Amino acid sequence: MPAGESALAAEPIASFDARFSEPDSAPPPWSAVRDVLAGSEMFWLSTVRADGRPHVTPIPAIWHRDRLHICTGDQEQKARNLAADPRCVLTTGTNTLRAGLDVVVEGEAVRITDRDTLTQLARLWKSELDWDFEVGDDAFRDGGNRTGLVFAVAPRKVLAFGKNPYTQTRFTFSR
C-alpha cells in the first residue's frame, strides 16, 4: 500500500460511556460502526477557517482501507482550511431521534497524490456514487476540467451514538 494508506493495525479500543447510555445497554461492535461508515454516502465535514471560525459542509465520502476519502475543489473553502490545518471531523448517521447509529470521526486529512491510489478511488467514486473523475497527475479532474483534491482521513477517535437504545461509545486507535 502507498504511504499514508496502510490499513488499521488492529481493532480500535472501545470505551462505553454508561453515563450517557440507557441502563442495561451495550456498546455497538466496531463492525456495526464500520458498516455505517462504509454504507453512508453523505457526511458533514467540519474544518476551521484561518480566523478560527468553524466551517461545516455536506460532502460525499468513500470508506476505503480503513479511512474516509473526500474530494474537494482546489478553490473551495474546505480545501484552504485543510491546507492550513488538516484536523477535521466527519459526521454521518440518520436524521431520526429513535433509530439508527450516528458516527463522528475525528482525524487529520492527508492529501492523496499517488496515481495508483487515485485510480482506485476514482473507480470507487464511480461504482458507489456514480461520479465520474479522471485521474490527473496528483488529483482528480472532472468533466468541467476542474481540479479535485483528494484527502484521506484516518480515524483517531470515533464516537458512536446509538438511538435504540441510547448509547455512547468512544473508539480510539493506536497507529
From TrEMBL:
UniProt KW keywords: Oxidoreductase
Entry's Gene Ontology molecular function annotations: coenzyme F420 binding; oxidoreductase activity, acting on the CH-CH group of donors
Domain of life assignment: Bacteria
Start and end residues of each Pyridoxamine 5'-phosphate oxidase N-terminal domain: 32-138
Pfam families found in the cross-reference section: PNPOx_N (PF01243)
InterPro entries, per database record: F420H2_bilvrd_red/Heme_oxyg, Pyridox_Oxase_N, Split_barrel_FMN-bd
Gene3D superfamilies: Electron Transport, Fmn-binding Protein, Chain A (2.30.110.10)
GO CC terms: cytosol
Protein name: Pyridoxamine 5'-phosphate oxidase N-terminal domain-containing protein
